[in-house]
Design goal:
11 helices; two-stranded antiparallel ribbon; about 350 residues; alpha+beta
Amino acid sequence: MDDGTKYTRVTGFDAQAFVEEVLVGNGVLMENAAIVAKCLIQADLRGVDTHGMNRIPPYMARVRQGVLDAKATPSLNRITPVVAQVDGHNGFGFLAGHQGMACAVDMAKEFGIGMVSINHSNHFGMSAWLVQQALDAGMMSLVFTNSSPALPVWGGKSKLMGVSPIACGAPGGKKPPFILDMAPSIAARGKIYRAKRRGERIPLDWALDADGKQTDDPSAALEGVMLPMGGPKGSALAVMMDVFSGVLSGSAFAGHVTNPYDPSKPADVGHFLIAIKPDLFISLENFKERMDYLYQRVVSSDKMHGVERIYFPGEMEQLTHEERLRDGIPLVDSEIEALNAEAELVGAKPMRTM
């Protein structure tokens, strides 16, 4: 990372220990804090800084306001041999998602597929950590969630749909796995929050201000709307996320999910997870060989002018993960100060930097 900004680095190990201590100080059970911290730091290590440890201050603000239950543990209800529902009980979305994917994987191991709907949850950060949980068990997966209003539907001008990511994955053989994690907007809303936090500008095509005009001011963008990628296509994907995550689960939908930065009421987020056994139709060895062949075909494609390398989906984040495991996670001073302020509130130790 060489953009002229001054960064202080922290190891993944120290960052996770710090986040765990802050969470426990806010009433989270130790075993739950370990899950939440691991998921957040996975995002930082993959370079998805918008969904990493910098989410701790707004999460803790919701805990203090009583609209996110730090002590909650999700509960599971098996509906059929391959279908289950998790009630998040207004606790951390990471916990509901972790339990939901674990159940989906168990069902898929026995029956080939497992589907889990999750209600009464909260923001669960980077969707790719759930994809990775399935990959670690040798499974393919689909991961959907809805989120608070940020996008207009195509042809509209007011916030209605969330910047709700669609994610999926499939294991590879000798080559990297396939991991897709993308929002239906031109950019993730977390990137605008990060730009505001760091005093940076944003590209003009990311968002509109409250008057419907393009803006490079992140504060003005947050008062306006995000723009969907591909116009009506991105808008339709956002609606699809609401159907599968909100309507189906019984959670909030149609613009009624609460913003994770709004400490006034519970978020009531819904999620939808599927785990699939990759050797349902062909042998596992054949599947992995075919995935490796697909990888090779993708990365060795003829390059357009000015392109030095073609990456498989998820590969750039994997490379960033390797680099940050080695060199540490970069943070600016304001981010460290905000995190240390949270630690001070509960008597936890300040962030240990490299």
